[in-house]
Amino acid sequence: MMTGSRDVGAVARVLSFWRMEEGVMLSPLSVETCRERLKAATDGPLVLFGPRAMRGIIGADWARLRKNIRWNNSFQTILLLALKDDRNGTRLTWRCGASTMARLFIAAWLVGIVTVLALGLGSGEMDLLFLGPAAVVMLAVGGGLAAFGRRMARGEDRFLLRTVTDLVEGRAAAERRAGP
User: Fold this and answer.
1) DSSP string of 117-171, one letter each residue
2) Cα separation of 133 and 152, whole Å?
3) Can you tell me whether residue 114 is helix, strand or coil?
């Protein structure tokens, strides 16, 4: 028997795939210095066996980073950074989570399942005895693929944020909340 807290945990794990975690980091370094340090610690996006901790692309005021692993994982955690001048250094706004392409793939997979069910049942040529198990198998394969990929990516968000924080000598920005 499942308890209420385990149900919430399972739902939270499923929903976490669709959300991007967000935050702000402050660095005493200039945008240029932050960018140079990030570039020095990042291999290009197509380098498979590079020596650096991260792979990605660093633009003039943005970066798209992921952990450098020895295999491809479409469900790998992506860290998106926006670098802006701040009066005391650089303000790094970040978003971290599964890539947009991975989320679009799973959404398309689910739409495909619903479409096949609707067309199959609507045509009258296929019955629920065939389509029901086929839909369950397709759901299991898609869900299993996403779960396995995200399981392989566990801890990457902490790794990426810790690595970037160390590189740019960053600290979390104090969140401002609206008063009563």
Assistant:
1) HHHHHHHSSS-HHHHHHHHHHHHHHHHHHHHHHHHHTTTHHHHHHHHHHHHHT-E
2) 28
3) helix
| pTM of the entire predicted model | 0.72
The pLDDT value recorded for residue 91 is 95
How confident is the model at residue 126, as a pLDDT?
A: 63
With cut-offs at 50, 70 and 90, classify the pLDDT of residue 61: very high
Q: Is the dihedral of CA 169, 24, 159, 65 positive or negative?
A: negative
Instruction: Please tell me the distance from the alpha carbon of residue 17 to that of residue 74, in angstroms, as a whole number.
Output: 13
Question: Using CA atoms, how far apart are residues 56 and 76, in angstroms rounded to an integer?
Answer: 12
Beta bridge partners of 89: 86
Is the four-CA dihedral 54, 24, 84, 30 of positive or negative sign? negative
The C-alpha atoms of residue 10 and residue 89 are separated, in whole angstroms, by 41
Please return the burial class of 29, using the count of CB atoms within 10 Å of its CB with bins 0-12, 13-18 and 19+.
middle
Are 97 and 77 in contact by the 8 Å Cβ rule? The answer is yes
Helix (H, G, I), strand (E, B) or coil at 64: strand
Between CA 127 and CA 141 the distance in angstroms is 21
